[in-house]
Amino acid sequence: MNQTMEVTPKKGKAKKILLICLAVLAGLVLIAAGTIWAIWHNEISSVLSLKQISVRNDDHLDGSVYQMNISGGYYFDEYLEQGGASNDGDLINFITDHITKGLLDMEISESSIGCSSFTGTLEDGDRIFGRNYDFDKTNTCIVFTNPGGDRHASVSTVDLQFLGLDQEKDVTSLMDKIKCLAAAYAPLDGMNDAGVSCGIYMTYQGAETVPTDQNTEKPDLTSTTMLRLVLDYADSVDEAVELISQYDLHDSAGTSYHYMIADSTGKSAILEWINGTDSTDNDGSQRELKITYSDADPATGTSDYQCVTNFIVSPDYYENQEDMKGLDRYEHILGRLQENGGTFADEEEAMVLLSEVGRRSWDNDDANGCTVHSVVYNLTDKTVLWTGNEHYQEEGYVFEYAL
Prior knowledge:
Order of helices and strands: HEEHHEEEEHEEEHHEEEEEHEHEEE
Distance between the termini: 79 Å
Number of strands: 18
GO molecular function: hydrolase activity
Keywords: Hydrolase
Radius of gyration: 25 Å
Strand content: 15-25%
Oligomer: single chain
Organism: Candidatus Merdiplasma excrementigallinarum
Protein name: Linear amide C-N hydrolase
């Protein structure tokens, strides 16, 4: 009898201690979870939004296509406030420090960005911006951002291998999905909710390709972060030019680039950084920004349309026509624009022109090359017609969006 009365209180006390320990542990877990959510809620929401929308087909050189909504402001204001970055290494350090708080390394780089673009008008008066991205098989992500404040919402396309992801594999691991958080800093083309669109294209400048690497007192931007600047802040072509003029450009990956920008008024411009002619333009630090507006473009002379591929359009830059990369594609696009006055029945007809200069159908000496994506941005309605891997009009490869 006495033994029973002694054991029962001990069991009750042990049970009480266990419940207290469990409650404390649960509280600590909740505090830890709350802390993680408070610090990384935007990043967690972004990673959870990543989804595959088109499967890979290695026989057709197709990578997978993904879609992602990046939450929050992705620290781009802070990036600009610190003066940007003058090289990929500094950009990577910034992204790592801010997005993962230094806990996980991030990657970002750029490479040979081929491509073709044009502007035009639909029969109903809507202004459009079309673009092919030519490269090698890779995984692609259609990225939506809406940072709020005085910044615009936008849609853009990102090549995921530039974020350090293996183009031969799908994005499945948590680490690979976390790497996709850097996508906001690597757009290749896009459109914002003000109807401003922008694309980036290689230019192969100099006797041997030399990247632009300006060195003045201005703050610094790398190639794709300059495009992000336009998407986030520009209300028009003129405002985009004004913004870009405030920064030094530092091209990445040992190559050189130029840009095309267009807005819903029909105005467009090609922005190039040059010094002298192709044979003498060998010091990237001495290049200056030159702007060719559509109505002053020697090839068009009209605000109705403009086109660009991979050579400098500024007059008298080349001594030899064979140095003008992508001239054949350019002439084909320009010829079509001249035939129709830059007017298309609809976005699908504009997509047909992009298909005509796709790398699988065009004279292509690179057996591994392909057109990774084709897109027509409607700058008036703020809608998107997007096709992956030259599967034009094929179900499962064509996507439509509206901002």
